[in-house]
Design goal:
With 315 residues, this protein is α/β, with parallel strands linked by helices. It has 2 domains: 2-197, 3-Layer(aba) Sandwich (Rossmann fold), CATH 3.40.50; 206-309, Roll (Methionyl-tRNA Fmet Formyltransferase, Chain A, domain 2), CATH 3.10.25. The protein is built from 8 helices and 15 strands. The strands form 3 sheets. The protein has a 7-stranded mixed β-sheet. Strands 10, 11, 12, 13, 14 and 15 form a 6-stranded antiparallel β-sheet that branches. Helix 1 runs parallel beside helix 6 (161-184). The longest helix is centred in the middle third of the chain and has 24 residues, at 161-184. The radius of gyration is 22 Å and the shape is elongated.
C-alpha cells in the first residue's frame, strides 16, 4: 500500500520500520520542523526525520495543514492510507479525506479510556495494572474515531512513561500491519467508541514534576515513573533543583516528617535504597538522583559527597 507516515519522537520509529520492512511504499514522512535545543540552542531534527533520511525517504516538515498549499502537497503524494504515530497535531477534514483507507492512528491507551495527549502518564499515575494501545481511524475530534483493534499489556513495577510508551508503539506498529492487510481486503471495519465511557487526559507541564512530600510514598513513586523521561520528578534542597530519577515506596516503623531525608541500610529494605525521604504515608526509597548542573548518580554515591543531605528537609 502507498503510505504517508506522520510522527516525530523516537518511539514513532518502530511503526515506520515495520511498514518499510513489510513492503509498504512510503511516499513521504511528515514531521514537525527542527527545534532549537541543547546548550548551544542549535536546531535539532526530530528523531523520525533522522531515521527517515537513513532509509532515503522523502521528509516533509510542517507546522500544520491550515494552508491550501500544504494540503495540496500532501494530496500529490497520492497516499492510500496515512499512518499517524505521535504526530502531535489534529488533522483537519481536508487531510482526513485524502486517503481512500483513511488516516490510521496509533494511540497508546485502550480507547475510549485516556483520550488526549498524555495517556501513558495518566495510566501510571492512576496506578493501573494494565495499559494498552488502540489502532483507530481518525476523525475531526480528539481520539474520538472508530477503533480497528486494541491490545492490552501489563504495567510493570519498573515501567516509566518512556519504557511503557516505547513498548506500546512497538506493539502498535505490528497491529497496523494487520489492520492494513485486512482493511485493504475488505475484511475489517472500525467499530465506534462508546462516548459514555470516555475519559480525557491533559497536557503535561514542567511544573507537574514538582513533588509534594505530603502525598503518599506510593503516589510519589508513581509520579517519579510517570514523569520519566520528561518533565522528571523534582524537589529542592538548599535552593537547588534535585531530580528524583529512580525510587521505590517503602514501609517504615517510624514515619519521619514529609520531606525529611534519612539514611537507610541498603540491606534492610527490598529496594536496596541508601536514602529515604518521609512522605504523608510511608518512606520513599531513593535510588538515583541528579543535582542541578550535575550528572545523575546513585543516591549512595550522592550522599558520600553531600553528607548534609541526610537530615535535611526538602521543600
Amino acid at each position: 500500500m502507498r503510505i504517508v507516515f506522520m510522527g516525530s519522537p523516537e518511539f514513532a520509529i518502530p511503526p515506520l520500520q515495520s511498514l518499510i520492512f513489510n513492503g509498504h511504499d512510503i511516499a513521504a514522512v511528515y514531521t514537525r520542523p527542527d527545534r532549537p535545543g541543547g546548550r548551544g540552542r542549535m536546531p535539532l531534527a526530530p528523531p523520525i526525520k533522522k531515521a527517515a533520511l537513513l532509509w532515503n525517504l522523502q521528509v516533509v516538515q510542517v507546522l500544520g495543514f491550515k494552508s491550501p498549499e500544504a494540503v495540496e502537497q500532501l494530496t500529490r503524494f497520492r497516499p492510500e492510507a496515512i499512518i499517524v504515530a505521535a504526530f502531535g497535531q489534529i488533522l483537519p477534514q481536508a487531510v482526513l479525506d485524502i486517503p481512500c483507507y483513511g488516516c490510521i492512528n496509533i494511540h497508546p491507551s485502550l480507547l475510549p479510556k485516556y483520550r488526549g495527549p498524555s495517556p501513558v502518564v495518566s495510566s501510571i499515575l492512576a496506578g493501573d495494572d494494565f495499559a494498552g494501545v488502540s489502532v483507530m481511524k481518525l476523525d475531526a475530534g480528539m481520539d474520538t474515531g472508530p477503533v480497528f483493534s486494541r491490545a492490552q499489556v501489563p504495567i510493570l513495577a519498573h515501567d516509566t512513561a518512556g519504557s511503557l510508551t516505547s513498548r506500546l508503539f512497538k506493539i502498535g506498529g505490528w497491529m497496523v500491519l494487520d489492520v492494513l492487510a485486512n482493511v485493504s481486503g475488505g475484511q475489517l471495519f472500525p467499530e465506534p467508541q462508546n462516548a459514555a465511557e470516555a475519559t480525557y487526559t491533559r497536557e503535561i507541564s514542567k511544573e507537574n514534576g514538582r513533588i509534594d512530600w505530603n502525598f503518599t510514598a506510593v503516589e510519589i513513586w508513581r509520579q517519579v515513573r510517570a514523569y520519566q523521561p520528561w518533565p522528571e520528578a523534582f524537589t529542592f534542597w538548599q535552593g537547588k533543583h534535585v531530580k528524583i530519577i529512580e525510587a521505590a515506596p517503602l514501609t517504615a516503623k517510624e514515619l519521619p516528617e514529609p520531606g525529611r531525608v534519612l539514611a537507610l541500610s541498603p540491606g534492610e529494605n527490598p529496594a536496596r535504597a541508601a536514602v529515604g525521604i518521609g512522605t504523608g504515608d510511608g518512606v520513599l526509597g531513593v535510588l538515583t538522583v541528579q543535582l542541578e548542573g550535575k550528572r545523575a548518580m546513585a543516591a549512595e554515591d550522592f550522599i558520600k559527597g553531600h553528607g548534609d543531605f541526610i537530615g535535611s528537609v526538602l521543600s
